[in-house]
Amino acid sequence: MLSPATPDDLDDLAAFLRTADLTVAALAEPAVHLWLERDDAGAVGATTGFELGGEHALVRSVAVRPDRRGAGDGLRLARFALDRAADAGAHQAWLFSRRSGGFWQKLGFAATTTDALATALPDAHQVRLFRATGQLDREVAWQRPLPPSDNFAA
């Protein structure tokens, strides 16, 4: 069951995201909304979230432990983040993904430019980090409209 990440979860969350090769910057910032699932032993098994920037949301931290992949958890987690972002007032969802474009296309995302993403979310922590490190030009950006009250049920 997904639960909101708390300050006590941040070390475990960051370690989990590093194993998934995902960005761990600014996990504790107020604009970043994160959820996680722990297994019976207390280990993080899945995460999801977004960073809100006005009417735009940067989807981030969607990851499933390898032994749980292939069962639809990734789609469930992504839909959860999209629903929560819409609930928070976002009308457009964005994300960076170099390896999982096909996955995001299943959810209606289309390729866009990193410049478009950075213009929509100039203050997003991941955008600022990627600009500062020169990584922005190596990223692949995706976007989709996010109408209010969108129901992502398959």
Description:
- Strands 1, 2, 3, 4, 5, 6, 7 and 8 form an 8-stranded mixed sheet that branches.
- With 154 residues, the protein is an alpha+beta fold.
- The two termini are 19 Å apart.
- The chain is built from 5 helices and 8 strands, in the order βαββββαβαβααβ.
Low-confidence stretches: 149-154
Number of helices: 5
> Quick one: biggest sheet?
8 strands, mixed
The helix/strand class is: alpha+beta
Helix content: 25-40%
What characteristic shape results from the CA principal axes?
globular
Strand percentage, roughly? Answer: 15-25%
Mean pLDDT: 92
Distance between the termini: 19 Å
* Record field, number of beta strands: 8
Give the ordered list of helices and strands.
Answer: EHEEEEHEHEHHE
The radius of gyration computed from the alpha-carbon positions, rounded to a whole number of angstroms, is 14 Å
List the helices and strands and how they pair.
Blueprint: E1 3-4, H1 10-19, E2 32-38, E3 44-53, E4 56-59, E5 63-64, H2 73-87, E6 92-96, H3 101-105, E7 110-112, H4 114-120, H5 125-133, E8 141-145
Parallel strand pairs: 4-6
Antiparallel strand pairs: 1-2, 2-3, 3-4, 3-5, 6-8, 7-8
